[in-house]
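Quick one, probably user error.
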C-alpha cells in the first residue's frame, strides 16, 4: 500500500490507524513524505518506530526532500515508492482515506478472481454539510456521462475508464508493461490518467462498489470542493478550452434547459422525462455512494456550481499560465504535452504492434524449426 503525503499532519494519523488494522497479513504499508513543511514526516516516523517491534516490516517511510524537474510531486512520490517495493500488487491511495479492516482482503480476492490488471474500489464520500451534498450529488451524475461504470470491463469501450486516487490497485507486471509512472510524470489527474493508460494498453480493468468500506472527506463545504476542483477540472479536458466549453454547454442544455421547458406546453413531457431520469440517477447512485437521493431536488444548484467550477478552473489556469498545487508551480506548456491521451494511446498501439510482430516471428521460427527437424 503506497500512501503519498504532503502536509497531511491533520489526517495522516487516522489514515495510518485504519490501514494498520487491515486483516490481510501480507500487507506492507509504504508512506512517502513528499517535502512536507508541517509535522507529517515526524508523525509518520513516530508510527514507524512504534510498529518496528510490534509488526516488523509492516510500516515503512520514505522522505523526499527535492522534486526533480519535469515531475509532478505526487507522481514522483508514487514512482519512488514503486521502485522501493517488490510486491506483485500495488495499492495506491491517499493520506486522507479511511479503510475498513476487510476491504484490502476483499479487493485482492476480487482482483484475482476477475483476473484484473487494474481494480478501483469506489470510495464513499463523507458528506458533512448541505453544500457538500449538493456539489457531490451532482458530480456523481456528471461522472456517469463521462464514464459508464457498467462498461468499464468492456475492452472495446475505450472511453469508459476508471481511476480513483483513494483506491487504485494495480498488478505490478501490468504497470511495468505500460512504462510505469514515467509517461505520466506531469499528469495532474494521475489516478484517471493511470486508468486511461491501462485501458488504452488493453489491460483488464475492473470497478467495485463497497459502500462504507473506503471513506473520504474530500473538502470542507461547497466552497472547499469548488476550490479543490480548480486544478483538476481543466486538466480533465486535457487543457483544451473547446472540450471544456462543450461539457459546460452540455450541462446547460441537458440539465438546466428542461426546467425552462416546463413553462411551454409542447416541451413539458420531454422535460419531465429528463427530470425523472436525473432523479432516478440520483436514487440509483445514492444507493452505492450513500449520498442522500433527496439532493436531487436541489440538483439545479449542483449543476450551476459545476458550471462555475469548470469556468473557474479554466480561467485560473489560463491566467496563471499553469497550475499551482501544494506550493509548486507547473507551467501550462509542459502540462499540455503530458496530459494528452493521444500520446498514451499511440504508445500503447505501438507496443501492441511490436508484441504482435514478435508473436508472428516466434510462430514463424517455430514452424521453420519444426519443418527442418
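Nope, works fine. Designed sequence:
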Amino acid at each position: 500500500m503506497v500512501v503519498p503525503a504532503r502536509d497531511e499532519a491533520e489526517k495522516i494519523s487516522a489514515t495510518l490507524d485504519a490501514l494498520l488494522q487491515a486483516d490481510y497479513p501480507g500487507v506492507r504499508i509504504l508512506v512517502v513524505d513528499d517535502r512536507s513543511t508541517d509535522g507529517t514526516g515526524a508523525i509518520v516516523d513516530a508510527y514507524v518506530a512504534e510498529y518496528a517491534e510490534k509488526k516488523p516490516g509492516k510500516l515503512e517511510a520514505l522522505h523526499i526532500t527535492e522534486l526533480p524537474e519535469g515531475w509532478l510531486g505526487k507522481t514522483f512520490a508514487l514512482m519512488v515508492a514503486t521502485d522501493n517495493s517488490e510486491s506483485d500488487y500495488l495499492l495506491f491511495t491517499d493520506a486522507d482515506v479511511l479503510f475498513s479492516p476487510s476491504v484490502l482482503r476483499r479487493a485482492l480476492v476480487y482482483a484475482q478472481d476477475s483476473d484484473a490488471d487494474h481494480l478501483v474500489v469506489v470510495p464513499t464520500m463523507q458528506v458533512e454539510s448541505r453544500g457538500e451534498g449538493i456539489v457531490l450529488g451532482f458530480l456523481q451524475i456528471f461522472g456517469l456521462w463521462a464514464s459508464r461504470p457498467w462498461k468499464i470491463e468492456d475492452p472495446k469501450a475505450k472511453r469508459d475508464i476508471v481511476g480513483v486516487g483513494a483506491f487504485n490497485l494495480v498488478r505490478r507486471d501490468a504497470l511495468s508493461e505500460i512504462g510505469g509512472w514515467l509517461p505520466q510524470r506531469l499528469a495532474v489527474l494521475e489516478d484517471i490518467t493511470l486508468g486511461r493508460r491501462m485501458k488504452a494498453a488493453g489491460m483488464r480493468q475492473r470497478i467495485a462498489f463497497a459502500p462504507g468500506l473506503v471513506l473520504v472527506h474530500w473538502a470542507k463545504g461547497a466552497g472547499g470542493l469548488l476550490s479543490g476542483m480548480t486544478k483538476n477540472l481543466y486538466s480533465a479536458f486535457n487543457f483544451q478550452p473547446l472540450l471544456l466549453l462543450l461539457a459546460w454547454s452540455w450541462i446547460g442544455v441537458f440539465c438546466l434547459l428542461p426546467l425552462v421547458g416546463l413553462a411551454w406546453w409542447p416541451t413539458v413531457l420531454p422535460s419531465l422525462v429528463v427530470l425523472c431520469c436525473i432523479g432516478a440517477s440520483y436514487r440509483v447512485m445514492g444507493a452505492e455512494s450513500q449520498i442522500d437521493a433527496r439532493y436531487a431536488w436541489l440538483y439545479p444548484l449542483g449543476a450551476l456550481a459545476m458550471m462555475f467550477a469548470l469556468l473557474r478552473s479554466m480561467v485560473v489556469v489560463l491566467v496563471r499560465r499553469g497550475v499551482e498545487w501544494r506550493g509548486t508551480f507547473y507551467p501550462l506548456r509542459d502540462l499540455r504535452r503530458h496530459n494528452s491521451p493521444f500520446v498514451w494511446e499511440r504508445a500503447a498501439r505501438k507496443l501492441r504492434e511490436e508484441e504482435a510482430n514478435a508473436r508472428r516471428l516466434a510462430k514463424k521460427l517455430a514452424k521453420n524449426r519444426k519443418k527442418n527437424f
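The first strand starts at residue 2 and ends at 5.
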